[in-house]
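COMPLEX REQUEST
Ligand: hypoxanthine
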Amino acid sequence: MTDEFLTRADYTAAAQFIAARTQHRPTTALILGSGLNPLADEIAHADVIPYREIPGFPVSTVEGHAGELVIGALSGQTVIALRGRAHYYEGYSIQRVTLPIRTLHALGVRTLIVTNAAGGVNPDFVPGDLMLITDHINLVGMAGLNPLRGPNDTTLGPRFPDMSAAYDPELRELARAIARVHGIALREGVYIFLAGPSFETPADVRFIRLIGADAVGMSTVPEVTTARHSGMRVLGISLISNSLTRGQEQVSHEEVLAAGKAAVPKLAALIKDVLARAS
Ligand code: HPA
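STATUS: Structure written out below.
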């Protein structure tokens, strides 16, 4: 399915369903990518809602993506974690993939922390590294598959949203400072979105490196584009689960999940302190 145009009614239906199932009123959301689900285990007084119960919510079919909302308290903030996400390659329209973002906005979320597992394209990166996303390349969007394609409801955001600072400079600075305190070597770079699900050929890797990518993945960019459209502040962190340039040609989903698991403690430490200090 290439396009389906959703409206405010779709987002409010999902948001009203969620609001009726919890007393918490979250203002910050965490999207937890492949293998990074355990981060949600630390949320206190949690209400858990499976995606399949929420009207219109896309349900991930991929292993490592649990498919539930976890809403509660973390580091003094009321948060809503998305344990797992749906991807375009699963067959959902790009508008359906990003329905959760507008639903979060309708719920009152104004800060989005997005995580993912990504392949390292910068030759300095090694598996297990964390990369602060400084910017992204919306290769799929440039080809026409932008989640904002279609009628624009100006009550949701502008027709032509600015993307010059998609990843909030203040939150980036905060993440850097916290990484220094914890002794976490935080890499920085540009994330490129490819539709997947096949991994990259060596020629694909040379091409995306040439055009400025440091890491590649199959998510995040549609979510961030939609979040910026609605005016949310965004912090993005990639876990480099594998290197595409260090003579390691073959990638497996198992390897991606294992790297995610191993990186959970340092990612959790970073995110918890960002939450504690973000205003
Ligand atoms: N390519 C694309 N997406 C990914 C990769 C990769 O090598 N690793 C994790 N997600």
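REMARKS: Strands lie at 28-32, 44-50, 68-74, 77-83, 111-120, 130-137, 186-193, 215-217, 233-243. The radius of gyration is 17 Å.
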